[in-house]
Amino acid sequence: MNAVVAILGKKALGRLKDKDVDTNADNPYMEKVPVTNQRGEIVKYKERERPIPEGLSANDAAILKKVRRKAYKWDMSFRMCCFRTRFGWSFIIGLLPLIGDFADLLIGLYIVKSCNKIDGGLPKTISGRMMWNILLDFGIGLVPFVGDLADALYRANTRNAWLLDAYLTEKANALKAGKVQDPDEGTTIIVPPELRTGT
């Protein structure tokens, strides 16, 4: 089972590199979908909640939805006057010297802890990357004001939501196929029954 989880983690990291997603700027919770007229021309875009990958257990689906929503709230929930970029509550509390940065760190750690509650847990590669994002975000935020702006643009929670999304998408694909193939070695492993709880 550990081999399957490790391969899924490796595939998820590769998926994020290949995927046309900016893990820093794209909203992990909502997506824009085109609205067309009768001639098939796009007339506008509307936002809807991102769909959950099919084949996940109820627990994994609920955790992904929760992490997406919290990442959006803390990193991208509003715009500020003359800035084109979105900010979240993480930026606001980060403006409080030291106390705000520690509060932001604790919130990030809470979100990572939520991610680890998925069925079978997270692979060490994904969990380690999430922790790195949180610690880097914390270090950047320690620099007064300029660091807080850079911290708001780095968006560690959003990056971590996309990591979880990529991992659970790979997991859902493996559950459907009943096997997983290592991208480096080319070996194929049958998905064990304890991981198949999502089917």
UniProtKB/TrEMBL annotation:
<dbReference type="InterPro" id="IPR025187">
    <property type="entry name" value="DUF4112"/>
</dbReference>
<dbReference type="Pfam" id="PF13430">
    <property type="entry name" value="DUF4112"/>
</dbReference>
<protein>
    <recommendedName>
        <fullName>Ph domain-containing protein</fullName>
    </recommendedName>
</protein>
<feature type="transmembrane region" description="Helical">
    <location>
        <begin position="87"/>
        <end position="112"/>
    </location>
</feature>
<keyword id="KW-0812">Transmembrane</keyword>
<keyword id="KW-1133">Transmembrane helix</keyword>
<keyword id="KW-0472">Membrane</keyword>
<feature type="transmembrane region" description="Helical">
    <location>
        <begin position="132"/>
        <end position="154"/>
    </location>
</feature>
